[in-house]
């Protein structure tokens, strides 16, 4: 068969070969060009490392890619680095009609990455003709991605943003499978995305919620413990991370797409690549993982070499060729995504790098840190353009305007600042939160800017004139105390913002009262029957609130900060410390005619400073843990009768005591440590029953449930651990593990009357589980 040079096929074929094979390949290319093919040789392109953008554009436009291999290029059956890099780059540059073929110049073993491609031998009879015809048939029957039709273009109908499609409530199925009955509170703020001029996607400790900016009405919500999040550029996927797992949600239908597992420490940061084929994750294990996304389960493409500390920030540039990683080691590293080569390390940030962002035109990288400043780096030379100074706290969040002319930065000082990117001049300080900022973002058209803070407020302004658009308060503060009334029908929840909420745990449910009389976190609360709630807060005040009307009054004010304090479960007694080596006891009488609080006595003889104070389950003894890992126990009957000895000392095996839990009958004390161990102590027999191990983070809360047959522990990464206890041999058996929250579980209660377990977390939510 003859093949005319005057072919009507408009071809674009890229040949990839190493220098050792170029003489042979150039002869082949010359024959193909005579036969009418448009050929580009890899040697005609600039260096791959210096110009990854040109390479991606070339691969995107190529209708056929030919890999040329031989024994010369693969002496040890290992693919050349150029071939390995380009096969990865092909995976990151999708083209549905692209033809990939491997041409064997001599007999050789194909690398695994090319075994799925079409393969031809050039050294057999009529091999050139078969190869030429194969190329021709493909090019003649597939569309040219560069072709432009002459017909009048039709304006496409804009599809709604995927986040605007679903309605209603969704949840992580595994929560219900583990017996979740109810969640209280949306949680503390995590991240913010402006979908359009009318809707904001707010990410909190309890999961994402889409809010109408007009009145804050939720359009949909997903119950999903969340520590950090990332929204894909198209809005199709939402990545939510809690603990060591990443959940990918399809927003258009509210369904869980897939789960990524593999990190060994809490994930702190996520970022989607612009083409949404990659997602990067980093956290406390100091590693950055690159995941390749597909219709099936995501797979780990690579794990980048470790930072020397926690990975805290991630950002892809606009064309996805670069990934910036920031760390608590105060450095920023720049990586090429297709071959994962480290091309630059940027130092001198003066603190943990908390936020990273590339400008839309790829010319600048902004890095915000706990050093209270933002550095703007020029990506062409990696030289520092300007340092932005003025914040009085750590810079936690930043975002470029879509036009790239403006940079917004938010910090723990509560301010949102706008800067000019060309000169670094401060344009304006827009509003102010009462607490640190968590997230800031521009609307897609750049007309609005929004900020979310730890004061649980969402503010939105017009970018042009900084006119306020709306101010909402959609979230709740960190959970700092939990208590039940004697019948188990009322739950009082204290928060870090000084508010207390009383929830009804009846079948009808509902919120009975929400008060915010304190100006600091609620440290402890207890019901004083029949109709009072006593609260102690870090503002040094002790207050009584009537559970029927919400009316409250100050009972008294302590000398210390109350940061270490505990109320007896019946509300009659307060134990607190001023930070010295003593504990003060106060009797409480909330009636209007009474004085409110009466000083009783001081407990002395502690080995160290008090760090944790608890009453046992029946409020018959006071348990005090100190900073020297010592525990002292005072029995109230002995104190009342002035019987000696007043206290009992317990030897502890953990380095730092983080939690205490008492069995309902008072016989067993569980002691949780910062090392993830639990010591079981028999109070009557004065002996250790055993040590529970295997928890990978600090044990931050403990409780007994199910008639003292179950021990429940909450850890610093939001997990609930369950053990079945057999009193015959005191050998607890682990029975369950629940990824319950996205923050330390600091409060656990067992509702004996309704057989429910209640967990309260730093993520700002309380979850009620069937026990």
TrEMBL record:
WD repeat positions: 260-301, 304-335, 346-387, 388-429, 430-471, 738-771
SUPFAM superfamilies with a match to the protein in the record: WD40 repeat-like
Keywords: Repeat, WD repeat
The keyword Repeat is annotated on this UniProt entry: yes
SMART domains on file: WD40
Top-level lineage group: Bacteria
Pfam family, any one: WD40
Record protein name field: Uncharacterized protein
Natural source organism: Candidatus Chloroploca asiatica
